[in-house]
Amino acid sequence: MKHNFGAGPCILPQEVFKQAAQAVLDFNDGLSILEISHRTTEFEAVVAEADKLVKELLNLPSGYSVLFLQGGASLQFAMVPMNLLGDGQIASYLDSGVWATKALKEAKFVGNVNVVASSKDSNYTFIPKDFEIPADSAYFHYTSNNTIYGTELFEVPETNVPVVCDMSSDIMSRVIDVSKFDLIYAGAQKNIGPAGLTIVVVKDEVLGKIDRKIPSMLNYQSHIDNGSMYNTPPVFSIYVALLNLRWLKSKGGVAEIEKENKQKAEALYREIDRNPLFKGTCAVEDRSRMNVCFVMENPELEKPFLKYAEEEGIVGIKGHRSVGGFRASMYNALPITSVHALIDAMQLFEEKQAKAN
Amino acid sequence: MKHNFGAGPCILPQEVFKQAAQAVLDFNDGLSILEISHRTTEFEAVVAEADKLVKELLNLPSGYSVLFLQGGASLQFAMVPMNLLGDGQIASYLDSGVWATKALKEAKFVGNVNVVASSKDSNYTFIPKDFEIPADSAYFHYTSNNTIYGTELFEVPETNVPVVCDMSSDIMSRVIDVSKFDLIYAGAQKNIGPAGLTIVVVKDEVLGKIDRKIPSMLNYQSHIDNGSMYNTPPVFSIYVALLNLRWLKSKGGVAEIEKENKQKAEALYREIDRNPLFKGTCAVEDRSRMNVCFVMENPELEKPFLKYAEEEGIVGIKGHRSVGGFRASMYNALPITSVHALIDAMQLFEEKQAKAN
Ligand SMILES: Cc1ncc(COP(=O)(O)O)c(C=O)c1O
Ligand SMILES: Cc1ncc(COP(=O)(O)O)c(C=O)c1O
Ligand SMILES: [Mg+2]
Ligand SMILES: [Mg+2]
Ligand SMILES: [Mg+2]
Ligand SMILES: [Mg+2]
C-alpha cells in the first residue's frame, strides 16, 4: 500500500480503481467500456448521471451548463479568450503562479490582456490581494489554487465583471458559491477523475456576446448544444469521473470532504511548523489545503528525508523544481491515514537526526 | 461472446482489455495507471514506446513527428488550417462524405477553401475521381475512408501541393506510403486504441510557414517541442493504444493485418452480392474494407434481420441514419470469426425467409 501524494494525475479512491477495471473487462452485456459507442443509451446514461452529479455536488444555480471536454486546462487557457474576449476589449488576469502566467500568455494570442497584480517577484509565495479590476474588463481570470506554489485563494475577488476561474487543483475540495462565477474550468486529473477530461461550468448568458468566428470544437456553444457529444468524447475518463463523483456523493458531498481536507491540511501544517527540521514556503494566510509545500531548514537533509519517506511507502512528495523541497498534494481521495504516515515519517526522521547529532 | 461491429469507439483485442484492466489495478509497484504522474519515467517509457511503434508500423520516413493529442479528429479539422492555411491562401478539399464536409466547414472558420469535387448529390455513394487540385493550394485535404458511407480511397491523389489526410477510420489497416503525405491525423478510437486520443503524423518541414498567432495547445510545434507532453496527456488512452500497437506488431504488423482485412471484406461483400436479400450501397470500386454498408432489397425485412442478428450476438450493425440499412465495421481487432458469424446469420435468415414464403 502506497501513500500517493502526487500532484496530478493523482490518487483516486481504491474502489474507483476496482470498478473501473471491472468496466474495462465488462461494462455492459459482455462489452468493455473501451469498445462501446458513445451513442449507446448506456453511455448516454453515464454522461447524464455525471452531469447531474456535478450540478448537485457544486450546488449549481440554474442558467449554468456543465461540459465534459478534452484538451486539459491548458486548452481552456485559449478557449476562454476565444469565446469571451472580443476585438478591442481587455481581459484582466491575476498572476499568482505559473499556471496563471500560462493562462494570460495564451490569452495574449487572442486579444488584449491586463495583469492586475503579480507575486512573481517573490516567487509566488503569496497571492496578491490589493488590486483593482478595471470595470470595463471583458472578464477577470484567476487561479483558485496554485498547484506548484501551494497557495490558495479562498475568497472570490469582488468585481462587477464576469469572473473566470481555473479551479483545476481545488474544484470540489471545498464549498464554493458558483453564482459568483461566470466560467469555471478544471483539468479532471485531481479531484474529478483521470487525465484526458476537462470540466467546464459556464453561465449560459456570458456566451455569444462577441463576434469572433470560432471553430466548432473551440466554441463552448457547440458543446452545450450537443450535450458534450459534439464529437466522440473521452468515454473512459468520463466513466471513471462518474465513479469518482458517486464516491464523493457517498462520502457526504463537498461539505463533508471539505472538513476532511481541513483536518488533513491542519495536521500536516501543524507538524511542519512544530518540527524544527521543516518549514513552509508560503504566506501562512494563503496556504493551500490541496498542495502543501515545504522545505528543510538544512537543505542537505532533503535527499535523505525523501529516501526515508520512500522507504515508508510515501511517493510523489518531491517538490516542483521551481520551489524545491517537498510538495504533499492531498486531494480528496488521499486518506487521512496517508497524512499521518507522512507526519510519522517526519517525526521519526527528526528523532533519527537527534540521535545522529 | 459478442460480435462487435460498432463503428467506433470499437472493438479492441480481448488481450488488450485484460492488460488494460490489470494496469488500472496495478500498473507499477502497486499504483494504478490512473494515479501516476505523466512525468514519471514509467509513463515516459510508455510514450517513447508508443512513438517508436507508430513509426515502425507506419514505416515512417525521417523528418516526420508523431503526436499524441486530445480533441479527436474534429479538433484537427480546425488545427490543420490554423497551422497550414495562411492569410490570403486557399486550401483545397475533396468532399467525399460528412466528415470531409465538416473538415472543410471548420477550415472556412480559419481561411479560404476550395472544394475540388463532391459526391454529395449522390449521397456520397462514390468517391469523385476526376478533379483538379490548383497548384497554388496551401494544401489538399481528403478523407481516406468515409466511415458513414463505406467508401475508401486507396490511391493517394496526384498533386504537388502538401497532402493532408483524415485517416481516422482506416489508419494502420493497410500499408500506405507516408512519404506521399505531409500530415495525417486520426481519432484513435478505431484502429489505434480507445476514445480520448488523437494521432497526428506531421512532416516537420510543412510547419512554420505561415505567421498566424496560434495558441500553444493548437500549435503542432508546441507538441513536437514537448514530445506530446506540452500539458497532461490522456495517460490511460495512450497506454491502451500502446497495448494495441504491441498487439498489431505481434500479429505481423500492418502488411499482415491488411491481408486479414482483405479476407474479411471480400467474404462479406461476396455474401452481400450473392445473397438475394441484400445489396451494397456504394460503387463497387470504392468499397471500404473497414465499413461495409448494405441494405435489404425489401426494406421491411431490415428490422427482423437486425433483431435476428442481435439474437446471434451480433451488435453494432445498424447503419448510420444518413444511409440506413446496415453498416458492419470491421476494424483490425474484429476477428474473422465474427465476420463468419454475420455471414452465417445472413444465410440462415435467407433460408428462414425462403421457408416462410
Ligand atoms: C492550476 C492548474 N491549471 C492548469 C494546469 C494544466 O492542466 P492540463 O495539464 O490539464 O492542461 C494545471 C496542471 O497541473 C494546474 O494545476
Ligand atoms: C473519418 C472520420 N473523421 C472524423 C471523425 C470524427 O472523429 P472524432 O469524434 O474523434 O472527432 C470520425 C468519427 O467517426 C471519422 O470516422
Ligand atoms: Mg501554479
Ligand atoms: Mg518547522
Ligand atoms: Mg463520412
Ligand atoms: Mg445481393
Automatic annotation (TrEMBL), chains A, B:
Any one Pfam family match given in the protein's UniProt record, by short name: Aminotran_5
Subcellular localization(s) per the UniProt record: Cytoplasm
Cofactor: pyridoxal 5'-phosphate
This protein's pathway: Cofactor biosynthesis; pyridoxine 5'-phosphate biosynthesis; pyridoxine 5'-phosphate from D-erythrose 4-phosphate: step 3/5; Amino-acid biosynthesis; L-serine biosynthesis; L-serine from 3-phospho-D-glycerate: step 2/3
Catalysed reactions, semicolon-separated: 4-(phosphooxy)-L-threonine + 2-oxoglutarate = (R)-3-hydroxy-2-oxo-4-phosphooxybutanoate + L-glutamate; O-phospho-L-serine + 2-oxoglutarate = 3-phosphooxypyruvate + L-glutamate
One of the protein's GO biological processes: pyridoxine biosynthetic process
Principal location listed in the UniProt entry: cytoplasm
Domain Aminotransferase class V, residue spans: 4-340
Keyword Transmembrane helix: no
Full protein name: Phosphoserine aminotransferase
Organism: Pedobacter jejuensis
